[in-house]
Amino acid sequence: MMVLLFEREIRPYFEYRQPPSYRTLLCRKTEPERELRSIFFGKERVGQAERLLVPVAGTGYVLRSRVAMDLRLMMPAAVAGDTQTWMASEAVVDEDFRLRQFESRGGLRGLNFTVRGTREGRKLRVAYDLLLFSGVQEVEFPPDAALSDYFLPFEGGGRLGEGKKWKSRMLDLDNLVSLQGKREVTFTEVYAVVVGREVVRALGHDRYAFKVEIRRDPTQVLPSYTLWVDDQGIVLRQEMKIQRLVCQVLLEERERVAPEKAAAYPWRVPLPR
Predict the structure, then answer these.
(1) CB neighbourhood size of 195 (10 A)
(2) Mean pLDDT for the chain overall
(3) Residue 97 scores a pLDDT above 80
(4) How far is CA 158 from CA 26, 174, 200, 228, 259, in A?
(5) What is the rounded CA–CA span in Å between residue 98 and residue 67?
(6) Backbone CA torsion sign across 124, 64, 269, 150
(7) What does the DSSP assignment read for 160-174?
(8) d(C-alpha 154, C-alpha 111), whole Å
(9) Least confident of 58-72, 131-145, 197-211, 249-263
(10) What pLDDT score was predicted for residue 15?
(11) How far apart are CA 240 and CA 247, in angstroms?
(12) CA neighbor of 247 nearest in space, from 86, 42, 67, 87
């Protein structure tokens, strides 16, 4: 019985290695670039996600992203209130590919929040603010770790191969906006595995891509996220669950940006005023 318990409940946690790092994502980036994705529920477009990556000579990189979506189609008809959900994030990575600081602000379930983090050695000092609730935490965060979030749990990059497994830390806001329990920021470990290769349609072409499944627990039967990532480490397509319903996130545009345009970037994804 102990052997079966170990194989089923304990061993899976030890099979996952260190995640693709900021180094694997950024080391070959020399020019600003942007990506635009659309979020679909069925055939209905319910939102967009946009990312801007800017190399900064001598200091590192700045990664900015925006997500905006309307959840009204996924909410029960009896549920009233604000269905608009949005988040704007900025992460600063130094020349040694270490996360130096980040800021995320947004609105979830009608509640606006701000989360800021600054590196202090192997930890992040995280301050958060939500209406009448605010606080400061220290969170263990290794120097080579990359930060992901609920909407985009894997930014891309990495040398993928079938069978590769890794775990990473995701900024989880559920506790912050929950009506129950202690309101605080948490960094949840999620578990990814490359399960095979498939042909997917992206940017007007059929492409071979690695299929990556991400779970919040390695023993979870069905994944929380499924992603298709090409040989260059670009996330072409993502499926995620919101209110237990599946949304698709599809890459629609990807291009380099002139440095002067990146300095005053004209965002396509608007944020609430």
Answers:
(1) 15
(2) 83
(3) yes
(4) 10, 28, 19, 13, 25
(5) 24
(6) negative
(7) --TT-EEEEEEEE-H
(8) 25
(9) 131-145
(10) 47
(11) 5
(12) 42
How big is the chain by its Cα radius of gyration, in Å? 19
Q: How far apart are the first and last CA of the chain?
A: 58
Distances (CA, A) of 20 to 68, 167, 168, 201, 267: 26, 9, 8, 24, 28
Buried b (16+ CB within 10 A) or exposed e, 106-126: bbbbeeebebbbebeeeebbb
Query: Does pLDDT of 223 surpass 70?
Result: yes
Q: Would you say the C-alpha torsion 227, 194, 88, 85 has a positive or negative sign?
A: positive
**DSSP count for the chain of H helices, then E strands:** 5, 15
Residue 83 confidence class, pLDDT cut points 50, 70, 90: confident
263 three-state secondary structure: helix
State the Cα–Cα distance between residues 27 and 13, nearest whole angstrom.
Answer: 29
User: Counting every residue, how long is the chain?
Assistant: 273
Tell me which residue of 95, 98, 97, 132 sits closest to 117, measured CA to CA. Answer: 98
As a whole number, mean pLDDT of residues 225-254 equals 90
Half-sphere exposure of 191 (CA within 13 A, CB side): 15
**CB-based contacts of 267: which residues, under 8 Å, 6+ apart?**
50, 66
Instruction: Let me know: does 165 contact 193? Beta carbons within 8 Å.
Output: yes
29 phi, psi to nearest 5 deg = -90, 120
Question: Running DSSP on this structure, what letter comes out for residue 9?
Answer: I
Residue 182: per-residue pLDDT: 60
Distance CA 181, CA 131 (A): 16
